[in-house]
Amino acid sequence: RGGSGSLPGLLAECGSFQSSEEEEEEEAGPGPAAAAAAAEQRREERLRRFRELHMKRYEACKLNSQEVVEEDKRLKLPPNWEAKKARLEWELQVQEKKKECAARGEDYERVKLLEISAEDAERWERKKKRKNPDLGFSDYAAAQLRQYQRLTRQIKPDLEQYEKLKEQYGEALYPTSDSLLHGTHVPSKEGVDRMVADLEKQIEKREKYSRRRPYNDDADIDYINERNAKFNQKAERFYGKYTAEIKQNLERGTAV
Which Pfam families match (predicted)? Predict the structure, then answer.
């Protein structure tokens, strides 16, 4: 029968009581097992991150040590090591190309010229022209070296005569500190004439460079000392054509 004591009413009251207990459990939070599992998961995550940081630190120390070793090696190398290394690598490449051209039966110089552009060829020609530029006088040692290089470039040895002398004198042609060759060699008349002609050519060229400027006694004296004379000469050279008329008017007394 209906009423508070009936079976349907009791079941409804039990259901409401059970649902209220579930809500209280949800409000109270997870149980101890779930909390322990979450704590263990957080601990594993922290350990994983710690291991990653430790590995990164190890890799950084290893790379730093390698770089220190490489830097020490670079400091011990000569200052022009990079240029020498590039030069050696280039020479190896040239040798490999020569071998390849020889294997194909081609001329390496011709193949190399086919690979050079017109701009590079012009630039190299300009470099050749200014390979030994005359930078003027710096000191006597440099002037003597330039003179020696210029004279040695002009030498054209007589190889046939050299072979004859080598057959005649043998090892005595190559003297050492213990050799006594004074007075044993008589130069040929052609060699003496060639040396005399070269010396006369040097003297003639030297006179052109070291000639004294002629002094004109009839020139106007418009200076008070040598330094002032040089200054006036420079001024006349640069501004003479602009001041010629003014100077003439001052000399005639007709200047305004």
Answer: SYF2
Each of the 256 residues of the chain gets a pLDDT tens digit; together they read 444 455 555 555 555 545 554 555 555 555 688 888 888 888 899 999 999 999 999 999 999 999 998 888 888 877 788 888 888 898 999 889 888 888 888 888 888 878 888 888 888 888 777 666 666 667 788 888 888 888 888 888 888 888 888 888 777 777 777 766 555 667 788 888 988 998 898 888 887 775 566 677 777 788 898 889 889 889 988 888 888 888 888 888 775 5
End-to-end CA distance of the chain: 150
**Is 47 in the same domain as 67?**
yes
What residues have CB less than 8 Å from 239, skipping those under 6 apart?
none
Q: Is 173 within the bounds of a domain? A: no
Classify residue 117: in a domain, yes or no: yes
Q: 46 lies in a domain? A: yes
> How many structural domains is the chain composed of?
2
Burial class for 111, CB neighbours closer than 10 Å (0-12, 13-18, 19+): middle
Instruction: Give the domain extent around 60.
Output: 35-76
